[in-house]
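From the thread on structure requests for the teaching lab: each student submitted one protein with a one-line request. Submission from student K.M.:

"Model arginine--tRNA ligase from Remersonia thermophila, tokens only."
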Amino acid sequence: MDQLAQKIGAMSLEAMSEKYPNCYPELNPFDFFRAHLANILADVTGVDPAIIYPALSWTSGLDKGDLIMAAPALRVKGAKPDELVKQWSEKFPDNDPLWEKPTAVNYFLAFYLRGDVAVKTVIPMIQKYGAAYGRNPAHGLRDPKDPSKGKKRIIVEFSSPNIAKPFHAGHLRSTIIGGFLANLFEGAGWDVVRINYLGDWGKQYGLLALAYERYGDEEALNKDPINHLFQLYVRINNEMSTEKEDIDKRREAGEDVSALEANSLDEQARRYFKKMTDRDPAALEMWRRFRDLSIVRYKETYARLNIRFDEYSGESQVSEEAMERIGREMQDKKICKEDKGAMIVDFSELVPGKEGKRLEKPIVRKRDGTALYLTRDISELLARHDKYQFDRMIYVVASAQDLHLKQLFKIIELLGHKDIADKCQHVNFGLVLGMSTRKGTVKFLDDILRDVADKMHETMKKNEEKYKQVENPEATADTLGISSVMVQDMSGKRINNYTFNMDAMTSFEGDTGPYLQYAHARVSSIRRRAELTDEELASADLSLLTEKHAVNIARLLAQWPDTVQTTLRTLEPTTVLTYLFKMTHALSSSYDHLQVVGSERELMKARMALYDAAHTVLGNGMRLLGLTPVERM
Ligand SMILES: NC(=[NH2+])NCCC[C@H](N)C(=O)O
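Reply posted by the TA:
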């Protein structure tokens, strides 16, 4: 890049990053192109380049240019925007080595890179950075100019299933999106702490222990803890509802039910859980086993999804003392008040207007003195801040809990910690429809992943030739199955609901996981057949890449680091996925025009260098999403 800057007489890279905010021309080709363009436009328009630089934005497609600028964004007074753009495009130099003379469209200027620019800058850059192309450690630095000041710290809390209950679609989405966000911030130079906040506390765990005492099976527990605990959970819950119905009936019939109630499962569970909160060793030991065994199994599933956690926290880990302390503080600060023996937060009295009403009146302590989900979250948030001193914290939780998290953040603010509340963000998402089976019975994540993998395995077997060459077809089918599920999940905006559709997600038609994997594997296969070394690719004569298809692939490759930067703002996996599918479409339409194997040697080297760069970027994008790119399928 530095050489290029010298050759074209542009300002040095260092000067560029001094002059423009978040400008990293040595890592991001578009920063380089933009900075150079802003300098020219400053001369052409007489406007301060600091205003021009952020006004240069993305186009909706390569046919609309590489960058576009709306004239009104430069705030030139007294002139008509459509006339301004005409003047500016005329004044724009004809001989700039990077940019063609811009075209005026209404009140926009559309800028196109010269044919060879993307090809010659981007391919060497990708060869140099490899897996790091697209990363930019500066985003997470406390001081981007001085790495010795250290990284900013972000907590990503995600997945957070409930022990003994099914790992449902909400947890699956949280796992996929959270894993992706953690990767995203890691690549942007943040110190990332991944926390799994398990649902592992409450009366239902007392009930579960009772079930185990009655019907537990040591062997089944060790073999498949998640399923066994779930079976116990379902059985005891059924029993409890039958019992409740019976008591209700008797009560209606005028019977005295107090003795029955005092000995009911519900009451026994409450007493058991009380023992747990009182730290009774025997009661805790049983619960601890359930928790530990469940975590072992969760870890196996997470590993299949390329996910790990730094901390398995959970509702059980919140200290009773801390909750009591904060409870008193809330009372002193008049944030909560007594209501029929319970403690509630009446937001309508604390927060003016509609917002106060919308936040409702959550309970923070029940009549019997026990804490709730919200109470635990309040303490946990503050404890995390003490422990990690985070700069930012993201909760990846379904939009069904929008209100809960709004209440949580507002209470933190009312406690006098607006600074902490401002660092917290709820990243929400919609529902997955149609995931439970017809009978309404739930499915475990492992079962779903196995079903999808089986389906992919069947498809793979249909092509005998290829199938024989795949080293470990089961493992590949598993990877493809997981990709199917993940890509379907990340295809739309997070907030949208979608329907779990096994046929659609495993299809090779359309923008699916298998199609993305296929696009990646296809480039690998060309590379295998071309039998070229890395040195040969590095010395390829890139000026041979003159075809429109080659140029367009390079223009897209240049956009990757910018796409990652945009994603840091949108926090949407679909931003990355949309880019990757654009890439795969450009690749698939290019193959007929850019033959590699069979072309003359120098041309073959140049084209392979281009495809190899595309292979790197596809792989980088897929790994960022949490997918495992396959080389053969
Ligand atoms: N800090 C939080 N409340 N995180 C979300 C936890 C999700 C909860 N375990 C559930 O399944 O609904």
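TA comment: The mean pLDDT is 95. The chain has 29 helices and 14 strands.
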